[in-house]
Amino acid sequence: MLTGESGGPSVDRDEAAHFSTQAWARNADLYEVIRAMPFNAELAAGSLGPERFRHYMVQDAHYLIGFGRALSIAAAKAPDPDRMVQFARAAETAIVVERALHGGFFRAYGIDAATFAATPLSPACDHYVSYLLATAYAEPYEVVLAALLPCFWIYAEVGRDIHARAATGNPYQAWIDTYAGEDFARAVAEMIAATDEAAAFAAPALLARMHRAFAHATRLEWMFWDGAYREAVWPV
């Protein structure tokens, strides 16, 4: 369920019909921190420094490779063919469609394939990718989806929020339009539906693991943008 309000509906566990409603409500405060953090505020204003955005785009391209691998593992673990196809297509989108978005910015910033390959993953990117892949390999299907969901959902919410307040002539409009667009919103809604479906008959202990995975991935979303704003690299 995509929420139209910035914090999503606030309900307790007994009243919630879906895992997604519960998970969003539990992490709504952190979403507000993400929405207002300097990277996203300056991105909306069009004042974000080009070097910060360049750092972000390179790291995001690295991240999407790992994200695509995790989605492929989710496809392999999916219990039915429809979900297999959904996650396989999502993996393809992460690699092919979003790479096209990155490609335009890469050309503008003079980043060629060799430069990209020679740039190591930042600490936040490395942590996030490692977490998703470890979860995808080691955890049950339900927990894998809970770990993958924040990237979809938070990007859609941030994209919509930035789109609503973006400055005219924003140099990052292509990025804003991608994540605020209808195609991405449909993909997010499908991911939420799949996660709620997986959680519907999960035992309480498994639901608790799903909530931990969702919360940790949400923290890593914050870390990724914070690291991009600081242009963080390995200190040693």
TrEMBL record:
<dbReference type="InterPro" id="IPR016084">
    <property type="entry name" value="Haem_Oase-like_multi-hlx"/>
</dbReference>
<dbReference type="GO" id="GO:0016787">
    <property type="term" value="F:hydrolase activity"/>
</dbReference>
<feature type="domain" description="Thiaminase-2/PQQC">
    <location>
        <begin position="38"/>
        <end position="230"/>
    </location>
</feature>
<dbReference type="InterPro" id="IPR004305">
    <property type="entry name" value="Thiaminase-2/PQQC"/>
</dbReference>
<protein>
    <submittedName>
        <fullName>Aminopyrimidine aminohydrolase</fullName>
    </submittedName>
</protein>
<dbReference type="Pfam" id="PF03070">
    <property type="entry name" value="TENA_THI-4"/>
</dbReference>
<keyword id="KW-0378">Hydrolase</keyword>
<dbReference type="InterPro" id="IPR050967">
    <property type="entry name" value="Thiamine_Salvage_TenA"/>
</dbReference>
<dbReference type="GO" id="GO:0005829">
    <property type="term" value="C:cytosol"/>
</dbReference>
